[in-house]
């Protein structure tokens, strides 16, 4: 009975078109194949055909533009003799329609289309109720809106692997998720987001069970039956792990999978972190053992809220992520809180389902998809069909190809192969990991008659090379010829024995008789020459054949000899005829080479001045060059007057006619430059340059001037050439002009000061000169500045020569802001700086007199008006130092009350027993005694000095009233203390 049930399930996913002669049995509509990390998947395409075919082609095109990359017609099986086909198309991530077509005798005779097949992402959902979902929670039944989100709409609490369907559908509202989820929950919304983010379809399997802690998952993964222990939750042995195992072993072999998505932890508030880690690790390892993929990816959410979060669970999940290979960090769904997000503080509803989908979408990011290694589809079990013509009762053998541990045929047989007569058969196999894999259906037609075919011959079977004969089968289809060709007819062009095997629809063979074809070769016919072609004018060439073997010769010149000599250009042919009457003709073109023609090309004028030259060259490259001056180079350089001629030869030794060129050379003029004003040449002054010549010349200065004399204001190299009436230019004369040294200049300050405090000034002194130009715009010898910066100065001397600029850098240091002065205790004040600047200290004064202290705390030795300012010392760039002071703080009037005994202990009364003690004087080596009111000494201590307030710890004393006495030399003082805890 179980065998029949799984057979029904297998056939349920095959949508047969009873009107088509070709059917696709795998894949099925809305299936999604797991892509690899190169965004590709090899999609197994299987099916059946019900008429004779020679070849099956397939193609895939996106359901909607932009949802994949079209793959054109591709042959997936080109040797068809069994009625079934099995091939592959490699598709990139996308949503496709797949079409197959059957070809017979070169013509497409049938086709079929399967709509909506995906290459994308496949996930298994596992965990407890927030993974499984519940329709009683608002929004839990909402499915996906994107057409590319798929599932198998099936759930049965009494899980039976043999009854699991393989029919995919869109994840609609209220869709179930085989094998064990009964609502879309938030997974449909996650599918929408992933499909839109990565533009690929998404498939979900559901393998979750509500109310189950990680211990139950771990124990069931080891085979424990928890039905008696957890009857309210577990209805079938092996749960909850059995649902995950069913998804991995019943579905994943055909689709592949990216990862298991783990949403669990709400029932583990009493589970320690290490226990959670160890148990979940066992579950992960069991899933990898079941799937046969040792690095099967898991994505673990951080989930523990029931309704409060539990850090022990989160820690266990984090340890699993950190320590188990290929386990990835899922979302922290404990962050999703609030009445609109969780119905009872635990289960998502309403906006919480949307939020959970968003969290999971963020976790399944580019890094996850690049780092995880998916488990790809294994395709269907490959089977072969063979015919046993000698056995009329069990004519066909169907055999499984591949290594499997068990076989379960739809007719009840359990071996690797079955022998049958007609019908349709499927095998379910189990591999060594326990995974279930199915074959394609193998339909066997009851009509497989074997007839004796014959070969029809359309002409002579003996002929010369280049001829042919058509051989035609008596049967329209199922023909495989002995030369490997398929089809009803072939054209034989080579010698050999030809026959064909005709196969029935399911592969029963019948061999035809044979036909012998003999092809006689044509006589060898090669025309050889005794020199390279073409030939030079007035030359000749011999044409000769290399065939002397009982043939006759016929040249198109009417000669009938083995060779001929020709001088004219033209096409010459030779026909040979052998004893079989086979003729061959060869041709050769004889051409006359063009006589090389050249011109002499000068690279410049052929009338020029002395010192120049002209290169004479032919107008092209040739094999040889013969100049009248004896040169055999391609180019000659001519510097003297005369007539020069050239002849050239080409690569074949053919000579040109001679050509010639005349050259004329003229003498050069001479010139000299005179200079005046060199002794005062500086910026702003000039030098006069003049040509020493009275000839009728054209003057060419390198400045561009054309006059005989020029005035120069800038140093440099100045050259002059002249041109005479023949256009000849002299050699250049030159003079180099340089400025005389500029006047020296300096900037100084008193004591070489270059750093001042903010708000102060410094005087910059310039050296003596006729005039001054500061970069500030000042024109005086000295300037007063108060801002930081670089100050530059240029001067002019009595020659009106300007110096180079000299710079002096002034640094301005920040003046610290004024501090705040506050009373600090009974007998001291404290300076509170406005900013914390490293190295700052303080400058105190009492009334108008300075105090030597520099610390932030000052012990008051007498009453009066106190003030303080902040001081900051800088090290200058000239190795000196500079102190900048802030303004003084506000004045603090410090009064010492009349009758003050010089001792203060506080706070008093005291709730803690921890006191602060101060004295007016420094009181070194002070002794502290505390007495009860009855005179009992309850504490004695010592303080080295009281230059500042000190801490006094009397926490050991009981609450009450005490007398404290301080003694230091001649100083004695007492005070009553109140301790109230």
What would you say this structure looks like, in words?
The structure is a single chain. By secondary structure, the protein is mainly beta. The chain folds into 8 domains: 121-376, Rossmann fold; 455-520, no CATH class; 527-590, no CATH class; 600-666, Immunoglobulin-like (Sandwich); 676-737, no CATH class; 747-813, Immunoglobulin-like, CATH 2.60.40; 820-894, Immunoglobulin-like; 903-979, Immunoglobulin-like, CATH 2.60.40.3080. 10% of the residues lie in helices and 40% in strands. It is built from 9 helices and 74 strands. The strands form 21 sheets. Strands 2, 4, 5, 7, 8, 9, 10, 11, 13, 14 and 15 form an 11-stranded mixed beta sheet that branches. Helix 4 runs parallel beside helix 6 and helix 5 runs parallel beside helix 6 (273-291). The longest helix is centred in the N-terminal third of the chain and has 19 residues, at 273-291. The chain is flat. The model is unreliable at 1-19 (pLDDT under 50).
